[in-house]
Amino acid sequence: MKNCLMLLTVLLMSTLALSVPLFAQWVQTNLPYSHTQVYALVSNSAFLFAGTYSSGVYRSSDSGATWTMVNNGLSSNNVYSLVVSDTNLFAGTDGGIYRSTNNGTSWVLTGFNTYYIAYALAVMDTNLFAGTQSGVNRSGDNGSSWSLNTCPCTYVSAFTFVGTSHGTNLYAGSRYNGVCLSTDNGITWTEVDTGLISKNVFALAAIFNQVPTDLFAGTLNGGIFRSVNNGQSWAALNSGLTSTSILALAVGGSYLFAGTAGWNSGNNIFLLTDIGTRWTSVSDGISTTSVTSVYMLTTVGNDLFAGTDDGVWRRPLSQMVPTGVKDDAPLLPKEFALEQNYPNPFNPTTSIRFALPKSSYVTLKTFNLLGQEVAALVNQELPAGYHEVTWDACKMPSGMYFYRLQTKEFTQTRKLLLLK
What we know:
2 domains; mainly beta; 4-stranded antiparallel sheet; Immunoglobulin-like; 46% strand
């Protein structure tokens, strides 16, 4: 009995220390200093990182229960963006873009040291992209050198990319010019904003639950728009929203979350299901706090994290995602498609998704640069639908590889990069 009481006491003390409520809601993590504005959140296999305004970068290894400030080498503590690329961590500040190779313990300035602010950072294939006032900058050598691309969008605040049957589309969201699209790895760009009532795009996201992929744009004062044709046209999707100023979008499985700006007590974070047309508030627990704006949302494991003007908040996805609801019928692909693997570059595992509009005998194989087969991932009859396989390349050397999906009626090959 004594041991049981001691265990109960320890559990209660742990609960109080983490401020975990007795009912389902958001919980504020223990980020030092109250009312800290958190503009960026990113994670790798070991840590969660938070980029703040005026306090630099914080690192947590326990889902926000404790944080450590990691600013050694940063000349500016105003961090607007973060991105992970293999073993590199990049931070976009108003004093340049910095790189860390030791999980933020120390930072060095990259070749991007202009007065432009890197509002957004993204990694696609072997390239690093920075969204700035002047447009999109690209680096192919981990930030050592940069080139300014001919992107008509300025003040770029968001990126997302979508693998299609014709290649990989990279999208940039602009605060003034809507959305721009590049189909050649960021070399050339075109504006794709037909139907966007608001051209002030602060967030982009894509849900890979069907082909073509659902693409979403969060705008200031215009709400959220969805495109199902690779951005060629957009339609508003605002039913249920109490604010049309959207600063953040995040995908959790087949679900989309949105974070808003403004003084909407109790209505700062919303959920849209994979086939839904209406948003539902999932802001329980934030309503009685000083949070007025949600700048960043990201999913890490089974949790959704929110970067706000009052620190970092956490809530389990299981508390928000509907359970026990069965769709009337599954969504089936309209065409064959092979998605770009994710993550890419990868070490040592990566996921490959593909779509089959009908039952087919499928082979999915990987090859080295000499064209030699190194792995057969799929070699069987599969039903129509969306499929995902994982390639574990732990025994393979670093380098470029190819993967090829083949059916009786369809063949497509893509590149992937293993970096150890």
